[in-house]
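Entry 14: structure prediction run for VOC family protein. Input pasted below.
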Amino acid sequence: MNLPPFHLAFPVDDLAAARAFYGELLGCTEGRSSEEWIDFDFHGHQIVAHLSTGAGDRASNPVDGHDVPVPHFGLVLSMEDWQALADKLIAAGTEFVIEPTVRFEGKPGEQATMFLRDPAGNALEFKAFADMGQLFAT
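Run finished. Output tokens:
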């Protein structure tokens, strides 16, 4: 599956905090920037933090016993990369919305997942499948 990179622009209320979170903690390379926005390389995808009010909507939906924040964005990683990121975030003392866990265990679409918020309150999900063929399982 060779997909084109996606582009996502999202609001943040502090560019320095966004730079520290996405650049330093998550390891995203910084691209172009101005006093009002920063481009990041999010595993080959372009995400742009825009200085704005109204960051971090706090709605949620129940999914497999957890309140999943909506809206959210993230990545589907290999299980090895997911575990390495989970270990890094735990070591950094990250506060999780949903701690690293396995959901839909023993069912189609079983996945490792974790949710956290950036400093502006935007929700991110990182997930992994032992079998990537289960990504769109019904």
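Notes: The CA atoms of residues 79 and 130 lie 6 Å apart. Will compare against the previous run tomorrow.
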